[in-house]
Amino acid sequence: MALIPWTFVYGLVDLMTEEPMGSSVIKSTNPYTKVQGIKAIDAIHSSTGMEQLFQILNTDSESLINIQVSEALSQAIASYGTDAKPGLMSAFQTHLKSTQTTNLPANLYDRYFAQSIAALQSEINAQSVDPQTRQSELQQVTALGTSIQSDLNSVQISSLQAGNSDPILDFVLNTFMQMNITQDGDVYALARTTASDTTLPETVRGNALLLLAKLGG
């Protein structure tokens, strides 16, 4: 639990009497203000405070892009230990589908197009009598194959970028890593399932493996 001057905490409370501190953190566009607000909520350390921390997590996930904000919120939630587990598990499941990729294999061209391109080249070799015509047609087919490969690479890159757009999964796994837990069946099952899910980004699966190692997996 972060330690900050109580005068700062009381000052924030005075300024925010009309709304919870969590709401003020969400409305703020200044990362420093967000961090200080999170630390103030953490310093009070109550069930209401934990609810406000999860309010920030569930409604202002875009702010997690800022490392300082993400770390402050993660440390604050982790300080509640297993009491925060239900909220973290719920957030993970809620954001899971938006983070899953289509898991397009790396060999799309070989799987769906290479054989057809090769068959077309063989047909040209068999039917084109004029060498120059045959060479020209073969070059066109080769160019077509190269263009298809390039388009497929773009599709795969777009898929990976879409899968990395939601920071919640990494945040939840990192928060569990910060907790003082070495054995927990629910967290272990979550980490194991995540690590083996090939539709998830590699960063998420890697963090799940680290969590598994911590839990003795």
What features would you highlight for this structure?
217 residues, mainly alpha
Secondary structure: elements and pairs:
Elements (H helix, E strand, L loop, with lengths): L5 H10 L5 H7 L3 H14 L2 H13 L7 H12 L6 H15 L8 H5 L1 H14 L3 H33 L4 H11 L6 H11 L6 H13 L3
Helix pairs in contact: 1-3, 2-3, 2-4, 3-4, 3-5, 5-10, 6-10, 8-9, 10-12, 11-12
Walk me through the structure:
With 217 residues, the chain is an all-alpha fold. Among the domains are: 1-79, no CATH class; 108-156. Helices cover 73% and strands 0% of the residues. The protein is built from twelve helices and no strands. Helix 2 runs antiparallel to helix 3 (31-44), helix 6 (85-99) runs antiparallel to helix 10 and helix 8 packs antiparallel against helix 9.
